[in-house]
Design a protein that fits this description.
23% of the residues lie in helices and 34% in strands. By secondary structure, it is an alpha+beta fold. A hairpin with an 8-residue loop joins β3 and β4. It is globular and about 70 Å long.
Length: 308
C-alpha cells in the first residue's frame, strides 16, 4: 500500500497541532485507552470506572466483552467516542477453552473446527443485547492450539458481532457430544493487541504519577487500518462544517481507495479531521480536476481549529 500525490504542499499555518503535541486536556479529550479487562465486571462498569478515574463525562467501549471474559477492551474518551462505528466494526481475535462433554479424537475435532471457517450463520444467545434473529458473520481463522482431556484450547479471528459462546454450543452439536465455553480472552481488537493493553490499576497509578500522556493514546491510531486522505489547511474549515471534500482540497492519499470505502481525512499535521465515504476511487481522485471525492460523515475536529 502506497501514497499517491495530488499536489506538493506543507502546513505553513500556525493553526492546529500535531497529535503528539496536544496539551493533557486535549490529549484526554481526543484519546483512547486499551484496557485489559479482568473477568468479573461488565464492559459498561469499566467505562464508568474510567470516567470516575479521569473525571470526564464520556467514555465508551468498542465491542462488548461479557463479564466472564477478559482481555482487550478499547475505550474511546470524550470526542473520540465519535469513532465508535469504526471500533465496533473492527475484527476481533480470541483465545479460549471449550469444554467438551465427552472425549473426542483430535483429528475429528480439528475437522469440525475447520467447518466453521468462512461465513457462519448464528442465532445470538438469549442473554445478548441484540434481536435473536439468524445473522451471518465471518470467521477468518480457527485453530486448535491444544487438546487436554476434554478441554480444547483454541484461537479464533472473526468479524465483529460473532458470538464465540454460540460457537462452542454449535461445535458440541456438530460433534454430537455437547460442549460449552469455559474461558475466553480477547487478544486483539482491530489493530490493538493485548501487548499494548493496561490494567485499571495502571491507569490510576499513571494519574497519580502524572503519566497519563504515556497511557492514553491519540484517537488517530483508530484509523490506522482504514484508507487515509491528507487535505489542505484551507479545506479543513469546510469539512469541519460537514461539507463534502472536493478533489481540489486533496494533497495526497493512500492508493486502492474504492468507491463507498470508509476513509479518514487528516490534516498535514496528522490530525484526524473527519471520517466519510469515498465518492470516487483512487484513480479518479488523482486524475480529475473537479468533483466531490468524499461525503463527510463524522467530524472529529472542533470547528474553528483552522479558520476559513
Amino acid at each position: 500500500m502506497g501514497w499517491l500525490i495530488k499536489k506538493f504542499e506543507a502546513s505553513l499555518t500556525p493553526f492546529g497541532c500535531y497529535p503528539g503535541a496536544r496539551n493533557l486536556e486535549e490529549h484526554i479529550r481526543n484519546g483512547i485507552i486499551i484496557i485489559d479487562k479482568p473477568s468479573g465486571p461488565t464492559s459498561h462498569q469499566v467505562d464508568k470506572w474510567i470516567k470516575e478515574i479521569l473525571g470526564i463525562s464520556k467514555a465508551s467501549h468498542g465491542g462488548t466483552l461479557d463479564p466472564r471474559a477478559s482481555g482487550v477492551l478499547v475505550i474511546a474518551l470524550e470526542n473520540a467516542t465519535k469513532l465508535m462505528p469504526i471500533l465496533l466494526s473492527s475484527k476481533k481475535e480470541y483465545v479460549g477453552i471449550i469444554h467438551l462433554h465427552e472425549e473426542v479424537d483430535k483429528k475429528k475435532l480439528e475437522k469440525a473446527l475447520k467447518s466453521f471457517i468462512g461465513k457462519v450463520k448464528q442465532i445470538p444467545p438469549k442473554k445478548s443485547a441484540v434481536a435473536r434473529k439468524e445473522r451471518e458473520r465471518e470467521v477468518y481463522y480457527l485453530e486448535l492450539l491444544e487438546l487436554k482431556g476434554r478441554n480444547a484450547l483454541f484461537k479464533i479471528g472473526c468479524e465483529a458481532g460473532f458470538y464465540v459462546r454460540r460457537l462452542a454450543d454449535d461445535l458440541g452439536k456438530k460433534l454430537g457430544t455437547g460442549a460449552h465455553l469455559q474461558e475466553l480472552r480477547r487478544t486483539k481488537s482491530g489493530n490493538f493487541s493485548e501487548d499494548s493493553a493496561i490494567t485499571l490499576q495502571d491507569l490510576v497509578d499513571a494519574k497519580e504519577e502524572n503519566r497519563l500522556k504515556e497511557i492514553i493514546k491519540p484517537m488517530e491510531l483508530v484509523v490506522e487500518n482504514i484508507r487515509k486522505i491528507i487535505i489542505s489547511d484551507n479545506a479543513i474549515a469546510n469539512i469541519c462544517n460537514g461539507a463534502p471534500l472536493a478533489v481540489g482540497g486533496i494533497v495526497r492519499f493512500e492508493d486502492n481507495i474504492k468507491e463507498n470505502d470508509i476513509v479518514a481525512m487528516l490534516s498535514l499535521k496528522g490530525e484526524l479531521i473527519a471520517i466519510g465515504k469515498a465518492l470516487m476511487n483512487s484513480e479518479a481522485m488523482l486524475t480529475r480536476k473537479r468533483g466531490l471525492a468524499v461525503k463527510t460523515d463524522r467530524v472529529l475536529m472542533e470547528k474553528g481549529t483552522y479558520p476559513k
